[in-house]
Amino acid sequence: MTKLSPVKLALGTVGLAVGIVGVLALREATLSTHEEVDARQVELVVAASSAGGEPGQTLGEMVEAQLLTCRLEVTSDLAGPIEDLGDGRFRAVFEPAMDETNRRQFCGCVEDFVIDHLQVNVVEFNELD
Amino acid sequence: MKTIAWLAGLGTLLAGAFYMVVSLNRWEWNRALFFGLIVLIAEIALATGLVLRRLARLEHSLKGPADSDVVQILRETRPTRDRFAWMRESTGQLNVFITFLVGGGVLLSGIAWVVDRVASKTSSPAGEERLARQLYPISYPSGGLLLDDITVLAQDVPGADDGQIRQLLRRGGRP
Question: Is the ipTM of this complex over 0.95?
Answer without folding.
Answer: no
